[in-house]
């Protein structure tokens, strides 16, 4: 019984697309956050230690930005490993969603922003097929996160 709308073939191609970008988890995770903070400066307000950073260069060098970039990529990696097991997948997404909704109070639209930037980066580095293979996964992640937010009263 699966809440996932991905076929076995889609899971496999999503995993190989993800592997390409996950090889450099810290650098690529950092690049995604730096792009988010630069293009959507309001997202910086959630991170007290990133607030004063204005230049992309400064952000790239920051241990905190690098650390969080790596954390984001690790979380997505855990989800990608469990795309064929909805119980395990939800076991990762649910606490993450709850924490961001209740403790961190992050607007859920930011998950879509981050996913779209990951897709952009995939396309730039590895082409449109890579991006297309991963698009369904990002939709799946965002849908589940939004559901958790609704349950938490957002």
UniProtKB/TrEMBL annotation:
Keywords: Heme, Iron, Metal-binding, Oxygen transport, Transport. It is an enzyme of class 1 (oxidoreductase). Residues 5-150 form the Globin domain. InterPro entries: Globin, Globin-like_sf, Globin/Proto, Globin_lamprey/hagfish. GO terms for molecular function: heme binding; iron ion binding; oxygen binding; oxygen carrier activity; superoxide dismutase activity. It catalyses: Fe(III)-heme b-[protein] + nitric oxide + H2O = Fe(II)-heme b-[protein] + nitrite + 2 H(+); Fe(II)-heme b-[protein] + nitric oxide + O2 = Fe(III)-heme b-[protein] + nitrate; H2O2 + AH2 = A + 2 H2O; 2 superoxide + 2 H(+) = H2O2 + O2. Its EC number is 1.15.1.1. It comes from the Eukaryota. Involved in oxygen transport from the lung to the various peripheral tissues. Belongs to the globin family. This is superoxide dismutase. The gene is Cygb1.
């Amino acid at each position: 019984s699966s809440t996932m709308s991905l076929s076995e073939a889609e899971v496999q191609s999503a995993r190989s697309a993800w592997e390409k970008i996950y090889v450099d988890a810290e650098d690529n995770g950092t690049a995604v956050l730096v792009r988010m903070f630069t293009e959507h400066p309001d997202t910086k307000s959630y991170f007290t230690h990133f607030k004063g950073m204005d230049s992309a260069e400064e952000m790239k060098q920051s241990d905190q930005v690098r650390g969080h970039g790596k954390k984001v990529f690790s979380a997505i990696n855990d989800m990608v490993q469990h795309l064929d097991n909805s119980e395990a997948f939800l076991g990762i997404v649910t606490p993450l969603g709850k924490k961001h909704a209740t403790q961190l109070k992050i607007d859920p639209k930011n998950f879509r922003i981050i996913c779209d930037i990951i897709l952009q980066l995939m396309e730039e580095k590895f082409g449109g097929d890579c991006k297309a293979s991963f698009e369904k996964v990002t939709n799946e992640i965002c849908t589940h996160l939004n559901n958790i937010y609704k349950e938490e009263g957002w």
